[in-house]
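Field notebook, page 256. I keep forgetting to write these up properly, so this time I am using the form the group agreed on. The chain and the ligand, S-adenosylmethionine, are recorded exactly as supplied. Prediction of the bound pose follows.
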Amino acid sequence: MQHFFKKSLGQHFLVNKSILKKIVSVKDIRDKVIFEIGPGQGALTKEILQNNPKKLILIEKDKNLRSYLLKLQEKFKDTIYYIYDDALNINLKDFNYNKIQIISNLPYNIATTLIIKLIIDFDIVESMVLMVQKEVAERLCAKVSTPYYSRLSVLIQLHAEVEKVFDVEPHNFNPKPKVKSTVIKIIPYRKKKKIYDKLDHILKISFRQRRKTIKNNLKTFYIDAEKKILECAIDPNSRPQDLKPNDFIKLSKVLI
Ligand code: SAM
């Protein structure tokens, strides 16, 4: 049966076997509980299974892809558990595992939202090996005062170590995407920051307008913004991209 690729679901299937192998070899997955988001036609799934995970939970939104995975499901029926749903609706903790790993060639359209959502569950996530759009990888890894430094950089870097592993050119996919991709490795820190919601709120306001000073971005929401910024020993006239991740933690503690 011919499958018609759904652009809206970011369906760019990896067709280069050596890259599939390279992704799976980034972290040791033997005897581990693995979640794969968007297994598609099962190319990465097969490579994961070659490495003997204890359990492999597959989350795919497109039910039309079910036929591609039936054989794998039969052959590995004790290992594979298949869910047809939107990964954004899934709560990892509902599965009752206390340690999991995530491997995925992420659909471009949900990558950022999903990574941010997963931070909440980082206490049970041992590692994530993800293929994302190169630009998203740049934002995840960006250091302070560089062009890609953003809300995403701060949020992830306060909760995990992030590393670019390798780039993947468009010709390795079918159909070819317009942009380059990058495989990244995310290792969550064991200690979880508890002020997540407040921190994210401050970050959203702070980065609303990068050209504006931190004082001008924050004062729309907080009347005493300037006083509080000074209390944190931060220059109120700095731009948001010049504040270190820890400065945002300080601000989220004092701004009420
Ligand atoms: N893993 C396959 C590979 O590497 O070739 C396919 C990767 S493809 C980039 C992304 C996959 O995610 C597609 O199969 C798509 O249907 C699925 N997908 C898209 N949005 C999704 C969502 N919100 N939740 C779960 N799966 C989704």
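OBSERVATIONS:
- The pocket of S-adenosylmethionine is lined by residues 9-14, 37-40, 43-44, 59-62, 65, 86-88, 105, 107, 110 (CB under 6 Å).
- The longest strand covers residues 125-133.
FOLLOW-UP: compare against the apo run.
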